[in-house]
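User: Last request for today: this protein with nicotinamide-adenine-dinucleotide, please.
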Amino acid sequence: MSLNGKTAVITGSNSGIGLGIAREMAKAGADVILNSYTDNDEDHALAAEIAKEHGVKARYIAADMSKADDCRRLIEDAGVCDILVNNAGIQHVAPIEEFPTGKWDAIIAINMSSAFHTTAAALPMMRKAGWGRVVNIASAHGLTASPYKSAYVAAKHGVVGMTKVVALETAQEPITANAICPGYVLTPLVEEQIPDTMKEYDMTRDEVVKNVLLKRQPSKEFATVEQLGGTVNFLCSDSAAQITGTTISVDGGWTAL
Ligand code: NAD
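Assistant: Here's the final one, the structure of the complex with nicotinamide-adenine-dinucleotide:
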């Protein structure tokens, strides 16, 4: 499967799943635009490294996905956006009555509203190009809930709902919109939680992974960033041209429970 000649914008892609997706897309030949809210040498170096490794064009554009103007500017600065991957996301865990309003607002803005703004800015470019793919990285929490994750679950359900609307509004055009719903993925963010959890529960690393992190993931294995990148690439392929307005779970059976 080749993505030669296509340009992909991946939000929140200087680490974790977004970076993994960018690498897989570049491997398939896509030019990639990396993004986060920081503007460090390391961010730009990541883009240079991907360009060199895969012989594609790669650029890093700093833009804060909590801000509507930045979301739209990201797409404008990209200049071309054949494939939009809305991946930027944050998490906060607390009971509803203790959930800080600022955290609620930030999660709704970054995890959900950013996808609205980037999609609104990208669709005219896709229409002009006569082809487009919107891929939203939702979550198993876009389909089911866990306690203490009110903002995250609300935002991810919102993303799944918006994905369906985008699909309907583009249904008769060569554009598709879908959401990928990962279960647990071992990103640096998740990795960092392991040592503290080992101490808290007096468990080995293996016990924390299987009995705490992967408690609800029947496969007892993490999904990988490469698998998610491969799923994005599949949604960009001709085989997926009639797949639109739906979700693909990459969750080791979590949502089958
Ligand atoms: P991560 O923290 O490694 O990556 C999040 C990315 O978003 C980073 O690149 C970060 O810089 C960026 N980001 C954060 N705030 C931003 C902002 N204001 N503007 C622009 N970029 C911003 O986490 P991850 O695990 O790779 O998560 C990526 C996405 O996958 C998120 O939407 C998350 O909800 C989703 N997800 C993750 C898992 C998991 O287990 N790791 C499971 C399901 C869904």
